[in-house]
Specification:
Elements (H helix, E strand, L loop, with lengths): L1 E2 L1 H17 L2 E8 L18 H14 L2 E11 L4 E10 L16 H9 L4 H6 L7 H13 L7 H18 L7 E4 L4 H14 L3 E6 L3 E6 L2 H8 L8 H9 L2 H10 L3 E3 L3 H12 L6 H11 L3 E3 H8 L11 H9 L12 E4 L5 H4 L6 H23 L10 H8 L5 E4 L6 E2 L5 E3 L2 E3 L11 E2 L13 E10 L2 E2 L15 E9 L5 H4 L1 E4 L1
Parallel strand pairs: 1-4, 2-8, 4-10, 8-9
Antiparallel strand pairs: 2-3, 3-4, 5-7, 6-7, 11-19, 12-15, 13-14, 16-17, 16-18
Length: 509
Amino acid sequence: MDVGAADFARCLPCLQDRVGRAAFLGLDMEFTGLHSAFPQNNQPSLFDSPAERYQKVRQSVQRFTITQLGLAIFSEENSNKYVVHSYNFFLFPSTLGVTDAELTLSTSSIQFLSHYGFDYNKFLKDGIPYMNELQENILSQRLLEGNWKVCSALNLNVVKKAIDEVTCWIAAAKEGDTVILQDLSDSQMLDVQLVLRQALPNVWTQPLGDNEVMVKKVSLQHRRLLESSSHDSCQKELILTSARGFTNLFQIIVRAKKPLVGHNMLMDLCHLHDKFYNPLPESYEEFKKNIHHLFPVLIDTKTVTKSIWKNYQFPRVSNLLEVYEVLCSSDLNPVDPTCPVIAFASDSARYAEKAAPHEAAYDAFLCGSVLLKSAHLLLCELTDDAATANPSFSQYLTMLAEYFNKVNFIRGGVSSIVRMNCRIFLGRMLPADTPLPWLSVFEVGHGWMKGRSTRSYSLFVALILGGSQRTSSFCSPIDLSMSFVFCMITKITLSCRSLSIATGGTLRM
């Protein structure tokens, strides 16, 4: 179900009720860009520590914004059945009384979303506003001071026209006379009312239906009485609620404390913090503390599925949809009474008929479904009587407990690391065929890992210099056929649990 600014306020009470009754929530986002090219060397590196990677992600999050947020609400029904309400929220930064936001677009991201049919008109014309706590405090202070600022260039022209019309009318108007301003959008109606009240102490404004505002000439005493009325549409709290927009739902989700499920969700978590909570802190440790406070239970399906590979020989897959299809295959998850049944609600039925990869609501559904199917595999492996029981979600959570708050950490886009034709080990040249038992060979990248080490080890990585070609990091498969190479040696300590060098690791949030 697509939700824009025009429908959001109407949908919010129902969303609050469904989030409150949910077993867990699936989350996915689409952005205007992923990795900023500014400043230089901001691209993710194979050698990033978690703190270094966070700083790079932080700089990118500050430049790019969310175009679409997908929320899949999984409600547990009887007999191990889950009903899913999946929503696409189109978002656009608030222009209401706050500093005008700047949007940065990555051409590759825009091209990617366009390829999958993203509707930019909904994003630009009907995006739901949002703001974080810092922006809300600035807006609240301006309302207290009566210092309203029109940030939207479009609204500014409308406000100027309204002021001209009202000042011409009021000169000859008598107390009690009215004039109607027409063809105003919701944000324009608010801007016009606040500016007119601020500029003219002897007028009162009231919104009417059909995008109209009535302006009435009143006495100063009557104006003071109207300002204290509980029916005033321009009360501070009503304005703040309108300006918060999607942040109202974010706060509902935070208060609900439901398990939040994503796939490779570090970037998603950074945007949630920055756009709806507070600007990202410089400290990586402070970011982790804040995220844990907001979402006590995070489950990254990338972390889960990487772990269960060792017991179930997945074929090579490259994206979330393919992971879902593998888990749905009869070989891995045979249809039996104990398997979780996942059904779309009527407002999300179109996803039951056709896949929609890289549409945020559909990908959020995939995250939740992959979680349930993975948990079911783990439960069946542990218990012999799973076939006779109807597992509850609490049982699934118990199986997934070891993955709580472990967010996948993508170390780099390496497709493979192969053995070197020649090696320098502790300053000594070794023959090409000298076995190095601590050097594991992985085939990674977008697919599943083909090999894994069983213990911690130190890996000495050779950075190859040969002829005019220079490879400073592992960005592609390395094939060394030259007779002589010069090597620089870098020591990297790897954990067998994180598999840091080739497949990425996990961030304990």
